[in-house]
Automatic annotation (TrEMBL):
<feature type="transmembrane region" description="Helical">
    <location>
        <begin position="112"/>
        <end position="129"/>
    </location>
</feature>
<feature type="transmembrane region" description="Helical">
    <location>
        <begin position="201"/>
        <end position="220"/>
    </location>
</feature>
<feature type="transmembrane region" description="Helical">
    <location>
        <begin position="172"/>
        <end position="189"/>
    </location>
</feature>
<keyword id="KW-0472">Membrane</keyword>
<feature type="transmembrane region" description="Helical">
    <location>
        <begin position="232"/>
        <end position="251"/>
    </location>
</feature>
<dbReference type="InterPro" id="IPR037185">
    <property type="entry name" value="EmrE-like"/>
</dbReference>
<feature type="transmembrane region" description="Helical">
    <location>
        <begin position="58"/>
        <end position="77"/>
    </location>
</feature>
<keyword id="KW-1133">Transmembrane helix</keyword>
<feature type="transmembrane region" description="Helical">
    <location>
        <begin position="83"/>
        <end position="105"/>
    </location>
</feature>
<feature type="transmembrane region" description="Helical">
    <location>
        <begin position="141"/>
        <end position="160"/>
    </location>
</feature>
<dbReference type="GO" id="GO:0016020">
    <property type="term" value="C:membrane"/>
</dbReference>
<feature type="domain" description="EamA">
    <location>
        <begin position="3"/>
        <end position="128"/>
    </location>
</feature>
<feature type="transmembrane region" description="Helical">
    <location>
        <begin position="29"/>
        <end position="49"/>
    </location>
</feature>
<dbReference type="Pfam" id="PF00892">
    <property type="entry name" value="EamA"/>
</dbReference>
<keyword id="KW-0812">Transmembrane</keyword>
<dbReference type="InterPro" id="IPR000620">
    <property type="entry name" value="EamA_dom"/>
</dbReference>
<protein>
    <submittedName>
        <fullName>EamA domain-containing membrane protein RarD</fullName>
    </submittedName>
</protein>
Amino acid sequence: MAALLASATVWGLIWYPYRVFEAAGLSGIRASVLTYLVALMLGVLVLAARRCCERPSWWLLAVGLSSAGCNIGYVLAMLHGEVMRVLLLFYLAPLWTVLLARLLLHERAGRVGAAVIALSLAGAAVMLWQPRLGLPLPDKGAEWLGLGAGFLFALANVLIRRTPQHSIELKSTAVFLCTVTLGAVAAIFEPPAALGGMTPVHWGLVACVGVVLLVVNLLVQFALAHVPANRAIVIFMFELAVGAVSAWLLAGEAMGLKEWLGGAMIVAASVVSARADAAADGRRQFDADSGRTAR
C-alpha cells in the first residue's frame, strides 16, 4: 500500500519536470527517451547485481510495449492538455481492467463488473459532454492520448499479473528498454531539437527524474505482485488528489462542475471494483481455510 501511495504521489507530480524540459527546448518524447535511458542503465546494473538470467518471453515483451506506450502517451497528454481532464480520462482504467481481466485472465465480471462499466462510462460522458460537439468524446488530441494511456496502463497491470514467472527487476528493465526504443523511433519524426535553453541544472534534473522513474517502477512492480490490479487502481487514485493540487499551484488550472461530477463517478467505479475484488479474495481465503480444516 505504501509503495502504491508513493508511486501515485510521484505520478501526480511528474508532469511538471517534463513541462520544464519542454520550455527549455527538449520535447516530451526526447525527454522521455533520456529520462528512461537513465532508468534503463541503472536497471541493468540492478539486474547484473541480482545475477538475473531469466529467459524472456512474448508476455514480457507485451508488458514492456504496453507500459512504454502508456509512459510516452501519459507524458505527451500531460504536456499538451489540462492536467485534471487528462488524469480523469487516464483513470477510466478500471473500465479497461474489467474487460481485459476477462479476456486475458478469464475473470468473470458479473454484476459488479457491469456496474463498474456503467459508472465509468457515465462519468466520462458527464465530464466530456459538449453541446456543440454532440457525442461525449475527448475534445483534444491530448485527451485522446490520456484515454489511450489509461487503456495501456490497465493492460500493463493485467499483463504483470499474467507474468508471475518473471522477476520485478526484469519486468522493470523491459519497460525501460521498450520506452527508450519506442521514444527513439518517434523522435525521428520530430523537428530538430533546439536545446539552447537546457542548462546544467536541467540536465541534472533529467538524471534525477531517471532515478525517480527507476525507483517508482520497482515499487509499482512490487506492489502489483502483492495487490490485485482492481484494488491497486483505487490506491492509484491518490494521484488525482496530488494532480489537482499541483495543477492548481503550478499551472493555475481548476476543475469545473462537470469535471467534478464526472470524476466522482469514475472514482466511484474504481471503489466498487476494489470492494468486489476484496470480497472475492475473502471468499477464496474462506474456501481455502475450510478445505484445510476438512482435510
